[in-house]
C-alpha cells in the first residue's frame, strides 16, 4: 500500500517506521529542513519501546510528492492540518483514504474541504512519541489506534486500515464510537492541559487544588452541552469529571503538552479544544463563557510570551 | 478626636501620622509584633511624598486598646476586616464612627454585624503606600479620600470626618456616590489585578494581548449585572472597558497588588472582587460563570503555591 505520512514529527515517524517494517511503501512528508536532511542522509534513528533501530526512509516536503497515494495519515499539529491539506491536495485521488488521528475537535470539517467524506477515516491513538534531534525520535506505547469511517457506509475501508495497523504492530482497533472517544480525549486536554498551562503547574498540583471540582465541572458542562447538540454524543458530566480525576491521578507530577508548548514558545492547540467548544456554542445559540475565557487567557499568555500563530 | 487606626500597615500609618500631626489623639492598632516594637521603641519612620520624618506614636494590639474611640479607620486586608472587627468591638461605642476605605466589595455587610449603620462611613482612596521595614513606611499621593455616610440620614457625621481629613492634608471629599466609585475600583481590581496575577504579567502586556476586549467585556458584564441588581448602580460596560484601558495605559509596566501577593506567598483578595460578584450572582439568581472561574483559578494558584488562607 502506498502510504504518505503527512507531518512526520515524532508520532508520524513512529507510524511510518512500523508501517514500512511491515512492508508498506511509505513516504514521510515534513516541512522541517534539518529533519528531512538528517533522515535522507543517515536514515531515521528511532527507539520503539526502548529498542533502537536505524531505518532508511523516503522523506520530502509535502509539495514534492508527485504520486497519488492509497492512504495518507495526517499527523500535523491541529493548526497545521489545513495548511498541510492544501499542500497535499494533488496526491489525493478518488480512492485515497485519509486517516486523521489528531487530538482536538473540528478536524472532520477541515478534511471535508479536501477529501470526499467516503474516504475519510477518523480515529484516536494513545501512542506517545518525542523528537530528540533532527532525524532522531522515540515512540512508546501499546496502542490502541481506534478507527472509524466518517461515512457510515464505508466500514470496509476502515477495516482495511485497521488490518494494516494490526499487522504492523500499531494495534489498530475498529471502533463504533470514535467521536465519543474524541470528545472524551478533548475533555482531558481541555481541562488538564489548559489548566496546567494557565496555572504554570503540574497535573497533580492542579488536581489537588481546592477549586478543582468547580473548575472541572464548569468546563466539562460546556463540552457536554456542545457534544450533545452538535454531535449527539452524551458526556455525563459527573462521570467525566470522575474519569478526569482518575486519569490525573495516574499521570501525576507531569507538565502536559500545552504547558510545554508555552514553555518552548510554541502556539497552543487551545482553538481546537476549549476554543472549538466556545465557537460551536455561538453557532448553536448556546453559551460557553468559561471555555471562551480560558481560550482568551491562553491566547493572552501566548501574546505575552511573544508567540505568534502558526502559519505553515 | 480620639481616633484608632485598625490595621496599621503602610496606608494606616500614613493616615495615622497625618491625623496626629493635625492634633488628633491617634492610636495605631496592629498584630505584627516586630512593627509594634519598632514603632514603640524608635517612633514611626515615615516618608510622605518624599519628605522623611520620625514621629512618636502610640501603637498596640487591637485587644489591648481599652478606651472607647470617637472614630476608627479600618485599614486591614479585605479578609482581615471581620477578624479585626471582632477584636475591636469593645471600643466601639454608641457614637463611634467607623470609616472603611478598603478596596473590594461586601465590606458594608461585614461592618453592619459590629457597628450600627448610622455610624458607618464608607469611602475610597487613591493614596498609595508601602512598608520598607518594621516601623518604616512611605506614603504617596494627593488623595482624594471620598467619603459617604452608609445611612442616608447621617450626612453630618460624614462631613465631620471629611473636615478632619481635609485639615490633615488627606484631602477628604464628600461624595454623593461612593458605592459607584467602589464598584468602579472593583472593576479595575477584578480585571487588571486578577488577569495579571493569573497570567503572571505586567498590566501593559496583558492589555496588549489580542483577547483583551473579550476578557474585559466578559468580566465587566458580570460586575455590571450584579451592581445593578444588588445596589442599583449603573456600570455601562463599554464605558467601563474604555475606562479600564485608559487606566491601564497610564499605569504601564507594573505588577498590580494581587500579582505581588502571589509572588510573596500571601493570599489574594479575589473573594472580595470576582469572588464577591460570583457569590452575589448566585444569591440574586443570575449567573457569573467567568468571575467564578477566575476566582477558582486564583485559588488554585494559591493552593499550588502553598498559600493558606489568612485567619488573623
Describe the protein in words.
Two copies of one chain form a homodimer. Chain A has helices at residues 10-21, 33-42, 81-88, 107-112, 155-167, 178-199, 203-207, 212-231, 237-251, 257-263, 274-284, 289-304, and strands spanning 2-6, 25-29, 44-48, 51-55, 58-60, 71-74, 97-100, 120-125, 128-133, 136-140, 145-149, 172-174. In chain A, α1 links the parallel β1 (2-6) and β2. In chain A, α6 crosses α9 (237-251). With 312 residues, chain A is of the alpha/beta class. In chain A, the strands form two sheets. In chain A, strands 5-2-1-6-7-8-11-12 form an eight-stranded mixed β-sheet. In chain A, strands 4-3-10-9 form a four-stranded mixed β-sheet. Chain A has two domains: 2-176, NAD(P)-binding Rossmann-like Domain (Rossmann fold), CATH 3.40.50; 179-305, N-(1-d-carboxylethyl)-l-norvaline Dehydrogenase, domain 2 (Orthogonal Bundle), CATH 1.10.1040.10. The longest helix of chain A is centred in the middle third of the chain and has 22 residues, at 178-199. Chain A has twelve helices and twelve strands. Chain A binds chain B through residues 195, 198-201, 205-206, 208-212, 214-215, 218, 289-290, 292-297, 299-301, 303-304, and chain B through 195, 198-201, 205-206, 208-212, 214-215, 218, 289-290, 292-297, 299-301, 303-304.
Amino acid at each position: 500500500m502506498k502510504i504518505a505520512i503527512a507531518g512526520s514529527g515524532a508520532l508520524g515517524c513512529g507510524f511510518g517506521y512500523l508501517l514500512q517494517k511491515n512492508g508498506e511503501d511509505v513516504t514521510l512528508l515534513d516541512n522541517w529542513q534539518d529533519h528531512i536532511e538528517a533522515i535522507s542522509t543517515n536514515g531515521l534513528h528511532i527507539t520503539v519501546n526502548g529498542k533502537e533501530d536505524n531505518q532508511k526512509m523516503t522523506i520530502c516536503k509535502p509539495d514534492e510528492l508527485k504520486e497519488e497515494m492509497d492512504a495518507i495519515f495526517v499527523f500535523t499539529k491541529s493548526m497545521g492540518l489545513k495548511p498541510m491539506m492544501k499542500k497535499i491536495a494533488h496526491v489525493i485521488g478518488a480512492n485515497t483514504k485519509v486517516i486523521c488521528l489528531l487530538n482536538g475537535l473540528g478536524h472532520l470539517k477541515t478534511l471535508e474541504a479536501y477529501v470526499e467524506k467516503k474516504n475519510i477515516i477518523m480515529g484516536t491513538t494513545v501512542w506517545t512519541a518525542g523528537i530528540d534531534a533532527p532525524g532522531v525520535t522515540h515512540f512508546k506505547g501499546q496502542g490502541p489506534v481506534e478507527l472509524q469511517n466518517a461515512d457510515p457506509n464505508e466500514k470496509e475501508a476502515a477495516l482495511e486500515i485497521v488490518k494494516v495497523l494490526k499487522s504492523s504492530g500499531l494495534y489498530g482497533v475498529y471502533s463504533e464510537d470514535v467521536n465519543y472517544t474524541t470528545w472524551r480525549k478533548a475533555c482531558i486536554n481541555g481541562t488538564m492541559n489548559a489548566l496546567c498551562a494557565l496555572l504554570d503547574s503540574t497535573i497533580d498540583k492542579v488536581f489537588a487544588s481546592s477549586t478543582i471540582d468547580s473548575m472541572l465541572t464548569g468546563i466539562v458542562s460546556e463540552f457536554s452541552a456542545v457534544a450533545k447538540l452538535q454531535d449527539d454524543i452524551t458526556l455525563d458530566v459527573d462521570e467525566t469529571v470522575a474519569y478526569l480525576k482518575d486519569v490525573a491521578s495516574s499521570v501525576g507530577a507531569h507538565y502536559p503538552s500545552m504547558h510545554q508548548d508555552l514553555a518552548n514558545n510554541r502556539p497552543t492547540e487551545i482553538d481546537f479544544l476549549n476554543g472549538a467548544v466556545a465557537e460551536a456554542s455561538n453557532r448553536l445559540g448556546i453559551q460557553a463563557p468559561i471555555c471562551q475565557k480560558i481560550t482568551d487567557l491562553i491566547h493572552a499568555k501566548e501574546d505575552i510570551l511573544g508567540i505568534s500563530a502558526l502559519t505553515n
